[in-house]
Each structure stands twice: as C-alpha cells, then as structure tokens.
Records
---
Amino acid sequence: MHHSQTRPKPTATSNSSSLCHSRPSCSSRHATVVLSCKASSAPAAQYEPVPAVRGGLPYIGVLHRTPVNQLFSFVEREFAETGVRCLDLQVFGRHAVYTRHPEDIGSVLHNPSKWTKAPLMMKRLDRWLGEGLVSELDPARHAAARDVLAPAFRAQSVKDLVPLFADVGQQLAAALLSQAGSTIELEPITRRATLDVIGRAGFGHDFGALQMAQQQQQQQDQVDIVKLFDDILDTSMLLIMNPPLPDALVPGHSSYCAAVDALEAVALRLLQERRQQGISPQNRSLLSFMLAAQQAAPGGLVSDKHIRDQLMTFMLAGSDTSATSLAFCLYELARRPQAQQAVRQELQQVLEDTPIDQLQPDAFSSLPYLTGCINECLRLYPAAPGLARIPQQDAVLGPHLVPQGLPVVVDFFSCHRHPEFWPRASEWLPERWLPSNLKALGPQHPDAFMPFSAGSRSCIGRYFAMLEMQVMLAVVLRQLSFAAVGGEGSGQAAAAQSFTLKSRDGLRVVPTAAGR
Ligand code: HEM
C-alpha cells in the first residue's frame, strides 16, 4: 500500500546543497547535505540526500515507464540495479521515500507514536473502511477496538477453527477436482475459499462464495462479494496514491461507490441477523464479541457504525491476503514437481491416513516443509507489499534525513528480496526455513521478514492466517496434484497490486486427482 504527498521541507541550514535535498528530482546521488536535525542528538549532522528514482518526469514521476499497479516491482528493480538503501519516488507531483533496509523497517514499525499511519490515505478510503481496525488513526480507540477483538485471535480460539478450515479446504478441493484436467486460474477460486472462511469464522455466516462459482446462474438474493471486491480494489489503490483530483474523477469511482454500498448492505444485514439470533457463549465470532461489548457498554466505543466498519475491514483483510498467499503457494508448487512431492511425503509421514476431521490442530503446525513453502510465498509475494508511515518529526534512516511529514513506505517487497539479507534471495527455497538451514539460508536480520508487519499495528490475524493456510493446503494437496501451465520453471511469478498484491499475468494450473 502506497501513499505520497507534497514533499515538506526538512529543517535545513542555509546551505546551497540543502536545496538539492528539498528538490528530490535532483539526481545527484553522492552530494552531502548539512542539515540541523530535530531527530538527531547532534545539533548538526551530515546526511546524504535520498536518491530519486532514475528517469522520473516532473509531475507524473515514473508512470510513463510503469503502470501504477506495478510500482512495487518497478521500485524493486530500481533498488536491485542501484544498490541504494532508500529511494525517493514521485508520483502525481507528490513524493514518498521507499526503504528496503530491515533496520529502517524495524525502527519505523516499532515506534508507532513517532511514525503514524497516513491520515490523508485513510481519509480517502473512509467511505469503504471507515474507522475499522486497519484505518483507525486514534491510538487509544485503536487499542480499545483491538482489545474487543483480541479474544477471537487467541491461540485456542484459532485452534478451535481447524474443523472449519478443513471443511472449507474440502470444498475447495472438491471445486478443483470438478475441473480436473482443465486449466484454471487460482486466484479467483482461493479468494472465494478464504471469503467463506472469514464469513463463517468471523461473522457466523456462510457467504457460499465457493458454491456460487459453481452455479450456472446466481440466485436472485445472492450477492457475490468477490465481484464487489473486483470493483472496489483497483479504485481504492488509486485513491491511496492520493492523486490531487476530486474522488469522483478517479477512474472507476462510480462502480467503487456502488460496490461499497452493496457491501455495506451485506454488513448491516449480518449485524441485524446476529442481533436477532442473540449472542450465545458458544458463538465466538468477531461479530459476537463486538455485540457483547456493545451490550456491556451501551453508548461506548462499539456503536453500530463501528461494527459496520469492522465488518467491512475484516471482509477484506481476513480474506484477500490469505487468498493471494494460497494461490501463489499452489502455483509455485505446480511449477516444482519435486517440491510438491516433498510436501505430499511430509503430509503422509505426519498425518498418515488419519481423516482430516480426526486430526489434532497441532498436527498442522508440525509440517515444517509445507510451512517453509508458505513462508517462502509470504517472502517473495507479501500480500501487503509495503506500508506508508508519516514521521511526526524529522527522522533519520541510515545516512538519510527524512523531514517531518514526508511519507515513508516500508517496502516489504524489496526487503524480502534484498540480497544482503537473504542468501540466494531470488530463489524460491522452502528448505531455507527448515530449522537446520535457518542460520545459513534464513533471514540475516531479525526485521528482514515482515509479511505481517510488526508492532502495535501488526496483523491481528497472523496466527489465524498461518493455520488457515496450513490446513487448507494440507487438505487440498492430499487429494490433488497440480501442473503449471507454461511448464515448470524456477523464476519468480510477476506481481502487481490491486490494493493487495496479486499476480500480474494470472496463476494458471491444471489440477488432477493425486496419484493419477
Ligand atoms: C497471509 C495472510 C495475511 C497477511 C500477509 C497479512 C498482512 C497484514 C499486514 C502487513 C498488516 C498491517 C497493515 C497496516 O499496517 O496497514 C495487517 C493488518 C491487519 N490484518 Fe492481516 N494479513 C493476513 C491475514 C489476515 C487475516 C486472516 C485476518 C483476519 C482474520 C487479518 C486481519 C488484519 C487486521 C484486522 C489488520 C489491522 C490490524 C491493526 O491495525 O490493528 N489479516 N495484516
């Protein structure tokens, strides 16, 4: 996720080279700037200007060379070619500093009071996400909202969801088997599966998204949420670039508004249904926890609008991210028959022939090779490829000074491919995550692997997502083999963003029943 704004000036001493820093289109890479820095203990220190991305044009930046939805891949190539730590990227006349260095990423994310979320970006998504957990800006309200939801994400609550994950995994396997021998696109079908998971686990409601894909015709009262997201995601990505245009002129805005309104109607219907059914202690969904908090403190934080915002947030945050990771994982395995075989052997060794519904939840977290495959996809294809933060005062990133207010994008996509911190960085190597290989092949810095972010705004659903993916992949790969269309290969799949990360060219595979 990206955000940029007109570049504020650093607190600079009168020095001719400081002008170079405040004019980031200057491509001088080595000039040293003398600045007085509020963030440094020294009254004056020497800093290097953040180099500008090469070949940018004054207003549109690099958009003549790359589409908006491929900025992260573009920046990664630029990092790889120049070897720099940070880059200044201008789009629509607004600047943002991208950093791929784990030290910077750690220091930004672990200091949320000094580095806040970008208010302008959140404001432009207000109609959709409101003040849900991802977009809430007020630290006290955020902490209180997170406390309400936290019980649903405790280890035991998530382990109790294993039968549900397995059931949806089974439906996914059946949907794939029904198309055995044909070419299928993975992303649309994994999006349906994870939406069904969050519907049932989070809201106690079955969206029937997987089933809907198999019906010839949609029934009259059915809403296909996956289609609504198609209308929301591209436009929301443009909105978070914060273009200096009224929202109504942003391409796709009217379909975006219509889809947001339709999604809101779904959220409000869920709320009404759950309220009518009443809350039972057995129902430990997110929606039930919120309704219980509302009943306990009427007029407090948890209003109906608050619940609406959280439902809208979780429909996306709890489904799109895991769907991307699942799809890339199946695709990478399809391209590597040996790795696929190794997963199947591990499944056989650890799970034997025990029916899935009789397995203990802990069995799924004892699959190191499968978990290595998931981690390797989270590394190369992080569903949230980067996050924007705003420094509340002048800040130092390595040799660079970042002036107060200038957005910084912590670039997980590039960090996860940084050759200094990842041996054999460009290779997809599930074995790098095996305990015996971690030292030699794993991340060479504690903050080099950040798919779920870090600190108080890190992913609340991290453990949920990992167990969901472990169970669903185990269920699917026990029953199906996959071959990649276009053949086997070891290079990376091309990535793009549509709010979250997606593939650029589709992830096509041919499924067959395992053992055939
Ligand atoms: C592979 C799967 C996932 C990945 C890679 C992922 C990644 C992330 C990242 C990077 C953030 C930080 C976003 C930011 O600071 O703006 C985040 C936040 C969040 N995630 Fe996830 N996520 C995943 C799955 C899930 C699931 C399954 C759920 C819910 C069931 C979930 C719910 C959330 C929520 C609510 C937040 C906001 C947390 C806060 O600000 O307190 N995520 N996620």
---
Amino acid sequence: MGVSGCGKSTLGSLLGTALDAPFLEGDDFHAPEAVAKMRAGQALTDDDRWPWLDRIGVAANAAITDRGRTVIACSALRAAYRARLRAAMAAPVRFILLENSRERLLARLAARADHYMPTSLLDSQLATLERPDEDEGAMILTTDADPCALRDAALRWLR
Ligand SMILES: Nc1ncnc2c1ncn2[C@@H]1O[C@H](COP(=O)(O)OP(=O)(O)OP(=O)(O)O)[C@@H](O)[C@H]1O
Ligand SMILES: O=C(O)[C@H](O)[C@@H](O)[C@H](O)[C@H](O)CO
C-alpha cells in the first residue's frame, strides 16, 4: 500500500514470486472511467474506490481459495479502504506501507513513461493517505533500498 509511485508493483511482484503466490495488480481492477479520470488529472473519490476495492477483494479471495495466499499491490490509502479489504477476505491480511519523500516520488513518477497516473495527482494522494496506526500492525518500509533488500525485509517480517 501507499501513494502512486511508492513502489507497490515492484515489491509486490517480487514478493509474489518469493512466496509462490499469485500477484494481483490493483491498477488492473479500476473501471475504465476511473482510469480516464486519473489520466485527466482528477483524483478518485470514495465512490470510485469502493467498487474497485470490492473487485480486488473478490479476486483476492479466488486466489486464496486456489493457492492459499496472494500478494496485492493496492494504494489502500485510507483506513476505511483497508478495513474493506480485510472484511472481504477469508484470510488474515498484512499490510506493508511503502513510503518515500515527495521529491523522490515525483522523480520516479516523472521517469515512468507508460503509465496513466499524472505526477500532478501525487499531492492529492499524499493528502488522502492515512498512515496505518499501531492497531493495524502494518510494516513500514522506505523504498530507498534495493527492491530485493526490501523483499527480503518483508519476507522476514511476514514469517
Ligand atoms: N526500491 C526501489 N528503488 C528504486 N526504484 C524503485 C524502487 N521501487 C520502485 N522503483 C521505481 O519507481 C517507479 C514506481 O514504482 P512502482 O511502479 O512499483 O510504484 P507503484 O506504487 O506500483 O506505482 P502506482 O501505484 O502508480 O502504479 C518505477 O519506475 C520503479 O522502477
Ligand atoms: O486509490 C487511488 O487513487 C488509485 O489506486 C491510485 O493510487 C492509482 O491507481 C495508482 O497509484 C496507480 O498509479
């Protein structure tokens, strides 16, 4: 979880491979209208996000039924979104928040050519983010380290 460009897809796909778990890319579950909105520089609202989170929950449950576990890259910016995901899944859910400085996130988003998410939406993502509190028991990683080092830290924490 975390704002656009924080490194969710990069770490998520590495973790999926390491855990032999299906990797679900949250971006793939947005409605076409939601992608068009973001492409046009408009931030999503709760109304855009609830059905998207529910689709992710359904897919995650199917993967859990099939393979026992799954790794999901999903912004899950607000505590209520994470509660929705937890409620949808018939298995314990662990969240890893990925974060970095605004400057580094902007640089990474700007360097990424083939993505619908404009850098102009980063500030709205940062404003919407509710960092998990103690009760959520999330791991928090800064994505300055090499992705494989982050993967190994996450695996140690998960185990
Ligand atoms: N640990 C890292 N070190 C260096 N670069 C990284 C790291 N993690 C991710 N990146 C780079 O930062 C950019 C954004 O990463 P990534 O696409 O994984 O983020 P994301 O959170 O999935 O973004 P979005 O939510 O917008 O899809 C990519 O170009 C990626 O290669
Ligand atoms: O909740 C949201 O606003 C969205 O999921 C965004 O975070 C983007 O889809 C994602 O980051 C891809 O850039």
